[in-house]
Every structure is written in C-alpha cells, then in structure tokens.
Amino acid sequence: MKMKMKVIFLDLDGTLIGDDYSPEPAEKVIDELKRKGFRIVFNSSKTRAEQEYYRKALNVEDPFIVETGSAIYIPKEYFPFTFNFTREGGDYFVIELGERYEVIKKALDELSEKFGLKYYGNSGVEEVMNFTRLPRQLAELAMMREYSETIFRWKDEGFIEAIKSRGLRISKGSRFYNVHGNTDKGKAAHLLLHLYSRFFGDVEAYAVGDGLNDFPLFDIVKNAFIIGNLRHPNAVNINSMEELLEVIG
Ligand code: MG
C-alpha cells in the first residue's frame, strides 16, 4: 500500500516555541516529525524574517505561512509544476492573501491615540523587547512587518470594532491581538494543501496550535491538536509537543 503523504501545520509561539523563544528545545520534536515522514509547515503570526530564523535553526525547508495566513512562502524548487503566485521574493514564490502592512499601519496610527494602542510600528526596539520579552535579535526580526500588526497594549476593547469597521480582521494569538487583512491561518493552509494534493494525491493533514487564531486551521485539517485548555470541536487537547509525538504514534 502506498503511504499517505503527511503535512503538519505548526503554530510557533506557545506551541513549538516556549517562553524563552529559543529554538533548541524544539530540535528533538522536529527531528522526530521528520523521521515520521512529515512535511513541516510553520503557520504563525510571526514574520518571514522570524520564521526564517527558526527554519534555519531547526533545518526545516518546507513552505511556511506568515503573519496569520497573510502570505505563503514556497521555496522555488519545491513543487515540480507551475502554479499561480503573487510575486517572487528571493528564493521563494509568494502567494499573498492578506493586506499590505502600510494599509494596516495607517489604520492603527489613526486609532492609536483614542485607544492607547501600542504595536510594532509605533514602538522602539527596547519597548518591543519589554512587551514581548523577545531578545534583541528576534525583536528586530519581528519588527520587519509585511502584512500585519500585533497589538501589545490597549486601554479599551472598543478598538476591536473600530478596526473591523475599516475592513481589517483581528484575531487573538497566545499573547496579543493580531490585525491583518481578510485571511486566516486556515485559508492559507487550505490553499497550500491544494498544491500538496496536486503533487502527492492523497494528503493527510495535521495541525497543532494553542490560540484562538489557530481555530480556522483546526477547521480544515483531519487531525487537529490544541496545546493547553482552549476547546475546539475538531481538536484533541494535549499538554506538549512531546505528548503529540506519543499520540500520533
Ligand atoms: Mg500560539
């Protein structure tokens, strides 16, 4: 019997990566997933620059989804057929689904005073390090926004409606709110799965996450896992990535 091709979508913060943002604790998990034959697709609110840091540290060379479903980066040699993409960027074909950063920043700049908003675009690197606890090197990579913003501080939840009324979407990650265009992690993953099935035929899809912004992803895969206490009808709760390895056998 031909083995089914397996893809796993992984959230980063609070899922693969712990509170100290170090890639090392994830090495064993990534190696074990590779050994089990998984294609490993990071699907996170993190930027391209941050995800490239973790890809390099963990030797992951599959496509990746940045800034809450805003764009899919596909290494140029990855699929042996042509497909529609938005632009070429370095070694990647990029499929853009979200909104340009300038549009998002402009909307937030107009609301920032009224709602006391702090986000990457109106913070210095020291402030970013304080809000996120990121080390300086990673804070600088996180500030290289292309499609979304992260709200670190607000004084009134009314900003959520104000952002929505401007045609943007807002979703809750493990720590902060993300503001992005009309997309989500599930929409981008669905599109990438379509490319995988053109390549491999039958594809078995897995996903792991810990936040509400992972729910659209859980909706579109057969095997979904939540780290922590949130509940989703299609997902199994687990305590850690190590437990995932036991559960999937
Ligand atoms: Mg998370």
pLDDT average, as an integer?
A: 96
Mind telling me the CATH superfamily name of the largest domain?
Answer: HAD superfamily/HAD-like
Small-molecule binders: magnesium ion
Sequence stretches where pLDDT stays below 50 over 5 or more residues:
none
- Class of the largest domain, according to the CATH hierarchy? Alpha Beta
The best one-word shape is: globular
| Assigned CATH architecture of the largest domain | 3-Layer(aba) Sandwich
Alpha-carbon Rg, integer: 18 Å
Q: Kindly, what is the distance between the CA atoms of the first and last residues, rounded to a whole number of angstroms?
A: 19 Å
Strand content: 15-25%
- The helix count comes to 9
Which series of helices and strands comes N to C? EHEHEEEEHEHHEHEEHEHEEH
What is the number of domains?
Answer: 2
User: Which percent range fits the helix content?
Assistant: 25-40%
Major sheet: arrangement of strands: 2-1-11-12-13
Assign the CATH topology of the largest domain. Rossmann fold
Largest sheet: 5 strands, parallel
Number of strand elements: 13
Briefly note the structural class of the backbone. Answer: alpha/beta
Write a short abstract of this structure:
Helices cover 35% and strands 23% of the residues. It is α/β, with parallel strands linked by helices and 249 residues long.
Textual characterization of the structure:
- The mean pLDDT is 96.
- The protein has 249 residues and is of the alpha/beta class.
- Strands 2-1-11-12-13 form a 5-stranded parallel β-sheet. Strands 3-4-6-5 form a 4-stranded antiparallel β-sheet, with helices on one face. Strands 7-8-10-9 form a 4-stranded antiparallel β-sheet, with helices on both faces.
- Strand 1, helix 1 and strand 2 form a beta-alpha-beta unit.
- 35% of the residues lie in helices and 23% in strands.
- The chain is globular.
- It has 9 helices and 13 strands.
- The protein folds into 2 domains: 158 residues, Rossmann fold (3-Layer(aba) Sandwich), CATH 3.40.50; 80 residues, Putative mannosyl-3-phosphoglycerate phosphatase, domain 2 (Threonyl-tRNA Synthetase, Chain A, domain 2, 2-Layer Sandwich).
- The two termini are 19 Å apart.
- Magnesium ion binds next to loops.
